[in-house]
Design goal:
The protein has one domain. Helices cover 72% and strands 9% of the residues. By secondary structure, it is mainly alpha-helical. It is globular and about 45 Å long. A two-stranded antiparallel ribbon has the order 1-2. β1 and β2 form a beta hairpin. α1 crosses α2.
């Protein structure tokens, strides 16, 4: 994977992370944090899809690696919910 493919992957992950956070209504941070949430969400969503034998919907091939867009958004939303719960428990 070269630098351009890595940048495209980070941009797509940031968009998926931002969409997932917007669905939940809780924003963890800025654009860089959204990219991290999108990447972790992609791993979480892909794991959920494999566990329940669900198909990879809207997967994008970047540098020989498949990036599942749909499951990245779902995983990002789940991760944002978990982070929101953790943040609320520490504020109290």
């Amino acid at each position: 994977m070269n630098l351009i493919e890595l940048l495209v992957l980070l941009i797509i992950a940031a968009l998926c992370g931002g969409i997932g956070q917007a669905l939940v209504g809780y924003s963890v941070g800025g654009c860089l944090v959204s990219a991290v949430v999108g990447i972790i969400g992609a791993y979480l969503g892909a794991w959920i899809a494999r566990e329940f034998n669900l198909p990879f919907l809207f997967a994008v091939n970047i540098g020989g690696q498949q990036f599942p867009l749909f499951w990245s958004i779902i995983g990002s939303a789940i991760l944002a919910v978990i982070l929101g719960w953790i943040n609320r428990s520490f504020r109290r």
